[in-house]
Amino acid sequence: MVDPLLSKLASRRAQGLYRQRQTLSSPQGVFVSVDGEKLLSFCSNDYLGLASDARIVNALCKAAEVHGVGAGASHLITGHSAEHAALEEELAEFVGAPRALVFSTGYMANLGVVTALADRQSVVLEDKLNHASLIDAARLARVQVKRYPHVNTTRLAALLADVEGPKLITSDAVFSMDGDIAPLAELLVLAKKHGARLLLDDAHGIGVLGHEGRGTLAQQGIAIEDPVVLMGTLGKAFGVFGAFVAGSEALIETLIQHARTYIYTTALPPAIAAATRASLQIVRTESWRRERLQARIDEFIGGAKALGLPLNDSATAIQPVVLGDATDTLVVSQRLRAQGILVPAIRPPTVPAKTARLRITFSAAHEAAHVQRLLEALAQALR
């Protein structure tokens, strides 16, 4: 008998879809050591270059000396420390919301929000290119799901008009594989018109976009008030770990009572919360990081257009080069690595079929010379 697991793995490998982990032996940074090889990296979500910042490392170490390593319990038992409480207050003030609630990961935050707010009588309406956590959240909630074409608010409006009962719209704010931004103002208008809540996953916008890095909503002048629910992560631009949900007093109390991924899991280590508080202050005050990041993005877009590269309509730190075929994309990624540059090949099912791509991401730690080196390597790898 053929082991069905081995058969499935062989099929995935034959389609050029097999995934393999890469082992880092260095901190995150512009240059990383992968399997003993020093590479120029363009695949981290460390957008502001804070993952290895000495001030944040020091804050974590000092807090660990005071609070220990593990939280030891869930938030509702004895795991909720003074550091967690302070972080939640500071995050709420940062994004302009009445309250915030810290989760262990963004995935768990999205699962917790959707399952707490939606039941079997609810309808969840989601963008077809939403992050997997939003898609899985709707599945876990066992609700009726309506998917609308990517950023197509006309189709979303028609779907909203055709359904009854509680409604929840879910969308990435910055889409993780395409780098484009959702039409937030239009989504909010539709949510209010049809009595729906609006959950926005701003994992790739918080810390990067808007005044002081307050996120995509702030960039577009949209206040966090009902029906808006904001989810932001702390392991990308903030360079630490975890996530938070921000919104009304009633929303946060509802999540504390009903979000299973908050209630039934051990709290983040208090030292991580302390490190995030230190990072938050840097994010707010060092605007030069966002300015430098934007300069690198602009340099890449200009150079890529001159080379005729197939870019998406993205002005963010996520710059995909869509090549289509999974095997071809993997080959180009390997050619880049041979030139000392680390750019991953993103293949289905992470992205839709026939849209395999190089997912290039930038950091404030990159220099103009690094971007130029990337462009030259791309030109050679794509010949």
Question: How would you sum up this structure, described in words?
Answer:
The protein folds into two domains: 23-48 and 287-381, Aspartate Aminotransferase, domain 1 (Alpha-Beta Complex); 54-285, 3-Layer(aba) Sandwich (Aspartate Aminotransferase, domain 2). Helix 6 (132-141) links the parallel strand 4 (123-127) and strand 5. 43% of the residues lie in helices and 17% in strands. By secondary structure, the protein is α/β, with parallel strands linked by helices. It contains 15 helices and 13 strands. A seven-stranded mixed β-sheet has the order 3-9-8-7-6-4-5, with helices on both faces. It has a three-stranded mixed β-sheet with strand order 1-2-11. A three-stranded antiparallel β-sheet has the order 10-13-12.
